[in-house]
Design a protein that fits this description.
Number of helices: 10
CATH architecture: 3-Layer(aba) Sandwich
Bound molecules: nicotinamide-adenine-dinucleotide
CATH topology: Rossmann fold
Number of domains: 1
Number of strands: 6
Order of helices and strands: EHEHHHEHHEHEHHHE
Largest sheet: 6 strands, parallel
Radius of gyration: 18 Å
Structural class: alpha/beta
Distance between the termini: 45 Å
Strand content: 5-15%
Oligomer: single chain
CATH superfamily: NAD(P)-binding Rossmann-like Domain
Helix content: 40-55%
Shape: globular
Length: 264
């Protein structure tokens, strides 16, 4: 029970395929108390209530682009926990241009702004709200989920690549401030392609998933293993890891060529 006595907020559990869903379950299994949140539109599916039951957790809706919603979420969470909390998972991503099938050479810039707001600026907004409300305990841990398209070109990932580059940069920059002031660590985990609603939204996802599977010596990292990594990052076993982009990808990020790809 490596999270015994810890308390945290988990964003982004949509259905039981969601990475955040698995993180929520694993955190509770390891002794944590959690609050679940997602965008009000995501509530309509009703799935999150099942998770809330399993985890014995309240659900507090928040559009992560709205400062008002975030303030409400953070202050209600503090009321629920009876004070400050220890960890936060940001597990949010959505591209309007990808959704609407726009090609990278014909992007709509209003939609691009929305993509950045939802997928990256929401991370800064969350941390700024936590900072202002002094909501996180000393030696707390904040995580965002990202993808290697922030560093390398994956053409079908489109403007999500820039969203992830921005997200990772916010982790480093806010990691400085939260680290200096409160010994709080901020990291991003760069996860393998995973079968979820967000993942499958990317064109050619199946081919892409199979390619990464063959390229990675360990194969693609499953969502539940990503959840285990998150648990370790929320635990006291990783207190001095901060401002890092941590690859959880079966070795994909350091491969150049894998002969397995040539086998028919
Ligand atoms: N699936 C993959 O292949 C993969 C790989 C690497 C990283 N990631 C990242 O993992 C994270 C979780 O995605 P997932 O794959 O579990 O998919 P998912 O679709 O289950 O989760 C995405 C979540 O973002 C939420 N969201 C969207 N707009 C929001 C808003 N305005 N406010 C609050 N929440 C909002 C959705 O409701 C959903 O719960 C994302 O950051 C994604 O980019 C996914």
């Amino acid at each position: 029970m490596i999270l015994k006595g810890k308390k945290g907020i988990i964003f982004g559990a949509l259905d039981d395929q969601s990475i955040a869903w698995k993180v929520a379950e694993r955190c509770v299994e390891e002794g944590a108390q959690i609050v679940l949140t997602n965008a009000p539109v995501a509530m309509r599916m009703g799935e999150i209530n099942k998770l809330a039951e399993i985890c014995n957790a309240p659900v507090i809706p928040a559009d992560a682009t709205s400062l008002e919603d975030l303030e409400n979420l953070v202050s209600k969470s503090m009321e629920h926990f009876g004070g400050q909390f220890d960890f936060v998972l940001h597990s949010i991503g959505m591209s309007v241009n990808v959704r609407k099938g726009k090609s990278y050479t014909d992007l709509n810039y209003d939609w691009m702004q929305t993509t950045f707001d939802v997928s990256a600026i929401s991370f800064h907004k969350t941390m700024q709200t936590i900072w202002k409300l002094d909501a996180i305990k000393d030696w707390g841990s904040i995580l965002g989920l990202t993808y290697i398209a922030a560093q390398r070109v994956f053409p079908d990932y489109s403007e999500m690549a820039e969203s992830k580059a921005l997200l990772e940069s916010f982790a480093r920059s806010f990691g400085y401030h939260l680290g200096t002031a409160k010994k709080v660590r901020v990291n991003t985990i760069s996860q393998s392609p995973t079968w979820t609603t967000a993942g499958q939204g990317i064109k050619g996802f199946e081919e892409f998933f199979n390619y990464a599977e063959k390229m990675s010596p360990l194969g693609n990292a499953p969502a539940v293993d990503c959840a285990n990594y998150c648990v370790s990052m929320f635990s006291d076993l990783t207190r001095f890891v901060t401002m890092q982009n941590l690859y959880h990808d079966g070795g994909f990020s350091n491969m150049g060529m894998n002969p397995a790809l040539l086998e028919k």
